[in-house]
């Protein structure tokens, strides 16, 4: 115990893991010896126990205690590799999982986070724990101002205005500005080619006559949560997700905008 106190209070890099590991092993060994003492007559609650190994309890206690303190599962692997007792791998892993579940069930920070908080270091808390409304916040509430959009019958002047005012790689295309029905998106590079052709060949054509309107495979609803939008950006691997309500274009979300949304939610904590 004195090693743990010393390691946590010295003004130098904390060598906390081994004291915590040893403390957990001592508690596990104490429990194991208690089970051995109770089962010394060979019978517990009417069941016959031929042998109880206190060392197994020590391993499980060391992994569980250090895993709960650090909020990690790696101590289970470390305990098995250090001792070579692969026969105890299952109880060690189970005890570490249970200890982690109990340690993370409340607002208890891990040892790493507790040090950052106590020393007043820059610390980003878990948004899901510190802001319980994150999984239930609709994306429509935090969506920014609607970006530049084009209608399919847009001419060179409208396209030039969109290219000049927007830096997005994908610009949404709607059926018309009145209906706002999303048809897909057009690439910025294609719009630049369209403008070049109109300028050099002096053409007066519409957007849908020259450029390819790419369909969108994944759409978001304004009722989807921020957490769901973040997961879709990860799974789909897309840079832009469009938000529609009944087919009508409302806005879009990109990785930079998602970062700003998360930062704004964190600033409210």
TrEMBL record:
InterPro entries in alphabetical order: CBS_dom_sf, Cl-channel_core, Cl_channel_volt-gated, ClC
Keywords for the protein's UniProt record, in alphabetical order: CBS domain, Chloride, Chloride channel, Ion channel, Ion transport, Membrane, Repeat, Transmembrane, Transmembrane helix, Transport
Major localisation: membrane
Membrane-topology annotation of the record: Multi-pass membrane protein
Location of the protein in the cell: Membrane
GO cellular component: chloride channel complex; plasma membrane
Gene3D superfamilies noted in UniProt: CBS-domain, Clc chloride channel
Signal peptide span: none
GO molecular function: voltage-gated chloride channel activity
Protein name per its UniProtKB record: Chloride channel K
